[in-house]
# Entry
Amino acid sequence: MSGATDSLAHAVKEQEEGLLNCVHCGFCLPACPTYRRLGDEADSPRGRLHLMRAVVEGRLDPGSEAFQTHIGRCLGCRACEPVCPSGVEYGNLLELARHVGGEARKPSLLTRLLLRVFGTEWLARPAMFAGRAVRATGIPVLVTRLLAGSVPPRGPRLGLAMLAASGPMRGLRAAPAGSGSPRPAARLRATVGLLTGCVQAGLFSRVNEATVRVLEANGYQVVPVDAQGCCGALHAHAGDLEAARTMARRNVEAFEGAGVDYLAMNASGCGAAMAEYGSLLSHDPIMRDRAAAIAGRVRDVSELLAACGPVRGSAVRMKATWDAPCHLVHAQRVSGPPQAVLDAVPELEVLPLAGATECCGGAGIYGLTHPHLGGWIGGDKVGSVLESGADILVTGNPGCMMQIGAGLRLAGSEVPVLHLVELLDESYRRAGFYAGRPDHGNGRRP
Amino acid sequence: MIPGRLTKELARICGRDAVIIDRDRLLVYESDALTAYRHRPGAVVLPRTTEEVRRTVQAVVRHGLPIVPRGAGTGLSGGAVALNGAVVIGTARMNRILAIDAPNRRAVLQPGVINAELSAAAAGQGLYYAPDPSSQTACTIGGNVAENSGGPHCLKYGVTSRYVTGLTVVLPDGSVVKAGGQGREAPGYDLVGLFVGSEGCFGIATEIEVGLLPVPEGVRTLLGIFDRIEDAGRAVSEIISAGLLPAAMEIIDGPTIRAVEDSVFAAGYPTDAEAALVIEFDGLEAGLDDEAERATRFCLRAGAREVRGARDEEERVALWKGRKKAFGAMGRIAPDLLVQDATVPRTTLPAILKGISEIGKRYNLIVANVFHAGDGNLHPNILFDRRDLDELERVEHASKEIMQLCVDAGGTITGEHGVGLDKKHHMPLIYGPDELDTMWGIRRVFDPGAVMNPGKVLPEETEPSHANRGQDPARGELVGAPAPA
# Structure
């Protein structure tokens, strides 16, 4: 038996027990963004589980068009998990299914290329540098503005618009920084290590900086964790489990070495993946327990902040609406803490967003690999943001920020997209919490 | 597989992406929520309008193929399973609410609208749609019409047929019939009444008009905890005998409690109890406390360990979620299940529950009960693993015995799930040849060519024209897992 066939048989066997929990009740159908739009049960969670089971039973070839198409078309948003009475671990099964599917038939060149770049440091750094350089020319913003109105957003247009949307939003810093004395250091609550991430570090360094400041303002000591790398979420979602495991091992060792109480996450996709390191490495006798221990210390930044109030800053008189990232609300079941953080911003009016817990269509690299459906789902999200009447959209994951930001800009909207910590950070800046700090006293970036 | 010419024709009518013919893709349509019956359809078509349905029906019939309508595939009697390569007409894309007429308390919808979403859409006007099948977050109104669905609150409010006031129906000959409508009493024969509950054997409803009710002013929800399920059954019987009219009375037995409490829908039912009885009163605020008080006393007298009221809306919602998601939670106990739907006179509940438990023990099977106790509508769930062929056989025997037990007690074989494929062979337990002949006669008026959902509801061998009429109905359609290749 060849290595590939062997691992295929193993993965298939592994799926069987998980699949048996599905009794076919169909309660997941209305929760699924692809089923809701396409109406084909093969594009529903129940249908996909049925296809997986057919592979396990030997009735379906994992290389078949049906398996490849419908397993591939899943967003991986996991909205089906919280509505499943039998507790089917759909996210895990999907990754295994994609692994099996990928062994039977190679994923598209685009998918392989993107994963390769994210997973390889010497490729990721220059790629992110190039991204920043292109962004700095202002060309993406210009092109996006020229293309505005040409919905649905997809293809290279979407790529450029996403790059444009990853930049800092203007207009928020109209108010001057507070001049009061810096906030006296709060009692030390805990030490945390921040996962700086690949996309986050490459294109959203300002979010990482804001995360450190707001955590420190709330009594956390943020310890640098130098040996860390990409979390492997995108690889796991695409079924490249071996690559994901290699990255997981490296991060487990890095964060163990840092000896922190918590791992702080400001990208919910990464948070969900790291919280599941235990099951990802469950077949590794050496790493299994260590991975589970590290996974148990993973917290979204909103959870850490909500656990201590958080401290209130100065008024931000704006209308905001919150879009819940799938991997925060569905995969990690975190829904209250972001609300608590929004409530800590005085005079911020929080408006409801229709379909706030439905996927934005970003879904990792989905917007790029499935431009039509991703654009459709993204277009619906943009529509509900515009209907909400909000003048800023707040969310908690870089992929969602770029997807929704790109969609808004291509629709000709100026509504900025902010990370939750950026909003709190601005409230703190106005309160003068950072007065005297080299990077923030005057409202300008270093 | 369907002929290439038909595929082309269907694609012209509904669009290429609305016609599914790939054999692998069709696998997902091989069963509904009762997975014991599996047959792959010849094709699936997903039309969007009445006109598309009409032309689809005409085309399929012209090619001599049978048709099976399908909503969300949440049915529990195999009604939406396509036998003999039938073409499935799915309503998933016909999911628009066409009008909510609040002053007249009416709504007009396409059949693919999800039950709970109608109530959600009407909530702003203080209205809701009363029939609430446990699958209401997923099942469609079209499916509800086909099965004449019930639900926990149908104890007080009645089932689907009470709310459907008008229908647009595509018949197998391609004609489009409008029955009832505008909420008024329709003169002549009651075609709406005839069509509701016809299980897809008469035609396909493409527009449905329903009545809505005002959201009740007040509601009280009680949870009674019992150490013996028979005691809970007795409490139900006594509450009704005393003249109280709860909106709902539901029993959840021990094994089900434990499966639910293990799930994300944990409702706070004590896991050491052998029965939880959920009782709800609703209506005008005045008098509700008194009714709840009296029901509490009946429960305690019947042997309840404890009775408590839901303190707030959140707790009430949790109690109901636990009940309504119970079927899905069974997957935590075993991979497959067969749910029965017999209805018995309420007074016989304690004896029947005991009998079911004995049958389960005799065949060494887990039987979990969660049911509409107020209506005497039982849902024994027989849990099994279809990979175990010996177990599969025991399931079939136990299922038949449970059915016989209920019929002997003066009950009937289905309360709300429909007859479908699963219970058609039990029809002669309830009806004699004259009744079956009458039903065949009505069916053939609508469907003379036997193309609408054939093989469902009535056993073929009872059809007056059938060659082997009167012979023993064939049995044994449960399927086990195929051997891996």
